[in-house]
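Shape matters. As here.
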Amino acid sequence: MKSVMLRLAIVMLFTVLGVTSLVAQQRIFGVVTDNESGEALEGAPVLLEGTTRGSFTNYDGEFEFTAPAGSYNLVVRYIGYQSYSKAIEVSGSGEMDLGVLLLQNNEIGIDGVEILASLAIDRENPVAVSSIDGRVIEEKLSNKEFPQILQSTPSIYTTRRGGGFGDARINVRGFDQRNTAVLINGIPVNDMENGWVYWSNWAGLADVTRTMQVQRGLGASKLAINSVGGTINIVTKTTDMQEGAVVRYTMGNDGYHKLMGTVSTGRMDNGLAITLSGSRTVGNGYVDATWIDAYN
């Protein structure tokens, strides 16, 4: 009998302690808004620093959570705004209305978004890849279309089928452009519906290409792209840090003329550098009605 009473007393003791621990929570709530417009900020994390207590604001900027008794530092962070911090004392019971928390707009703004285009390194990455730098493109492309610079690359067949400027086609390992991923600075440019690549949309790409790599066959990728045949990665030139200018003129058969110019300010006193590049291409075309008059 004593053993049963002892067990019952222990169970009641733990029950009381659990209820006490559960009850000793204070409800904390408030609203987070913009300091200037008063607009509610949705999805802002409101946390007690150094703990796992907190919540996110809802559509109306409201937040609510519970916390045990103690001294805390309430922190609110939101992209594009300065961090908000406030010391609070939690009694462990009742409610605490923090009112409206005003976040100051960050005048500097958020950090810039970096778009990185990774390149395969010879003798380091185990993939079948061919690289073509900008110097080769300048020397050998001439008045041909941009994809035709790949005609000497293994397992690649290119043609200007159709006759019009921008009608070039590429086949990698027997697969056409619908099954070959074309990236410019790491961004896919294949058509979203049928996967095709319209090179006429990129008529001036050869003028600003720094390097181009072709990976033959499948490879690991973070992008949802059709790359059964392979991947063509085009990386454009960066802003020139040296002051100067370049003018090029190309003339060919069937009335082909191309004038291209590049001007660079170099690094200025304010730390910025600007490079402007433009060109105009005109021509009658070998076949009637395949003329070109394009600006880039």
